[in-house]
Design brief:
Elements (H helix, E strand, L loop, with lengths): L2 E5 L4 H12 L3 E6 L15 E4 L5 H10 L4 E4 L6 H6 L1 H21 L4 E7 L22 H20 L2 E7 L1 E3 L17 H9 L6 E4 L11 E6 H16 L5 E5 L4 E3 H12 L5 E4 L14 H7 L8 H14 L5
Parallel strand pairs: 1-2, 1-4, 2-3, 4-5, 5-6, 6-10, 7-9, 8-12
Antiparallel strand pairs: 9-11
Helix pairs in contact: 1-7, 2-4, 4-5, 6-8, 6-10, 8-10
Bound molecules: nicotinamide-adenine-dinucleotide (NAD).
Amino acid sequence: MSRYLIVGGAGYIGSHVVRALVERGDTVVVLDNLSTGHLEAIATSGARFIPGDVCEGNGLDRLFRCQEFDCVMHFAASSLVGESVTKPLDYYANNAGGAIRLLEAMQRNGVDNFVFSSTAAVYGEPSRVPIEESCTPQPTNPYGRSKRFIEQLLGDCAKAYGLRYAALRYFNAGGACPSGEIGEDHSPETHLIPLVLQVALGQRERIDIYGTDWPTPDGTCVRDYVHVCDLADAHLLAADRLAAGGESVVFNLGNERGLSVREVVDLARRVTGREIPVRDAPRRSGDPARLVASSSRIRSALGWSPRFEDPGELIETAWRWHREHPHGY
Ligand SMILES: NC(=O)c1ccc[n+]([C@@H]2O[C@H](COP(=O)([O-])OP(=O)(O)OC[C@H]3O[C@@H](n4cnc5c(N)ncnc54)[C@H](O)[C@@H]3O)[C@@H](O)[C@H]2O)c1
């Protein structure tokens, strides 16, 4: 049994990890300012909730002094790519600033193990697909650059202070806990699957497809959707590896299977049995045509493999959540 501090644990991905940790008997404290998270997402999880902001070092020190942790997982971030372009200072302050405050507090209080939510956005427009971790990161927006900055900071802290970390580069998270109790609830929503399901629920008129002339089989953008419970499994494996004395690592986390926008819409039509109108729209600048992960590094290093490989199943779990919680938490 280990003791975890989960920063940003009331958010979409964090709350699924919190649930998985508690279920296997670990002790979990969640620190979250609820800026985009929901208390309801962890209310019945068995984790202890501490309201607070990761950018406030004094609060972090108080927390580390009154409770011991074996590992910290850091999910808290601002993560809207478009907003990061118009508000870069906010993004660097929350993402880079928050990570610095957290790492300082860990260092002052002797906590060495860290699992970090990185992103496929660090790659920018990849030169090769499937994308391997060895692909040179070239983020194309402030969000991706703030995450890449933290990865580099982690490397520096590992050398200087003996920090050990796992940086997990998620591709597109999707799906929900199969129980239907927790799921994705972002406002504004920018992710394709929840948007498509909101159309199925009659909450939106249609889905705009940005670009139908990309160099992909059906002309629409291709992305790699990985189930949020598979992400949770990977966090537990990564934390266990650090606890066993493993080296610092960077892992991609994707399903290794690309789905186009049209394929997502078609699957959602099949799963929901509802009409989902679409409208073709011009390309958005900065969108790469295809982002598909190679996850072979984490498969061979940790034995991770996705339980929800079938994208239909991923959409089914998301649909259960959205149908039962049409207005979120
Ligand atoms: N959702 C995806 O597809 C995806 C893909 C790649 C990477 N990521 C990264 O994974 C992480 C989690 O993503 P998510 O979709 O669960 O996001 P989310 O917004 O649902 O969760 C983030 C959580 O962090 C909290 N938070 C934000 N700033 C904070 C602060 N200063 N202090 C304390 N708490 C704070 C929010 O209230 C929220 O509960 C983020 O770092 C995101 O950049 C997500």
